[in-house]
Amino acid sequence: MDKMDKLGSMSLEELENWLVECVGEYVPDLDEPVDPGQQLGEYGLDSIAVVAFTADVEDRLGIQVNPTAVWDHPTVAQLAKYLLTERERQQTATA
């Protein structure tokens, strides 16, 4: 499977679910799952965790993601929508 196909086959809901799990890996002391509507900064993610999280996103989705996207799209729901749009943009740019 081509890297660009990884995200292309994911629905918004599937992407949000994966992002919730991924963020949860960087905040191991959570008592409940990450809320897709809550600001990611409220979970205590620091810049080092955000850079590592962004690298995981890039590896999984096969697109380039600037770490500032996490602050520009500060909830899982907003980030998932951005990533779908960004994938389309990057795919169009390479076509």
What can you tell me about this protein's structure?
This protein has 95 residues and is mainly alpha-helical. It is built from five helices and no strands. Helix 2 packs antiparallel against helix 3 and helix 2 (12-26) crosses helix 5. Mean pLDDT is 88; it is low at 1-5.
**Beta fraction:** under 5%
How far apart lie the N and C ends? Answer: 17 Å
Poorly predicted residue ranges: 1-5
Radius of gyration: 13 Å
What is the overall silhouette?
A: globular
Mean pLDDT equals 88
Number of helices: 5
Number of strands: 0
Residue share in helix = 55-70%
Major β-sheet annotation = none
Order of helices and strands: HHHHH
Specify the structural class. mainly alpha
What key phrases describe this protein's structure?
single chain, globular, disordered N terminus, mainly alpha, 5 helices, 95 residues
The gist of it:
This protein has 95 residues and is an all-alpha fold.
Task: Annotate the secondary structure layout.
Elements: H1 3-8, H2 12-26, H3 47-61, H4 68-72, H5 76-94
Helix pairs in contact: 2-3, 2-5
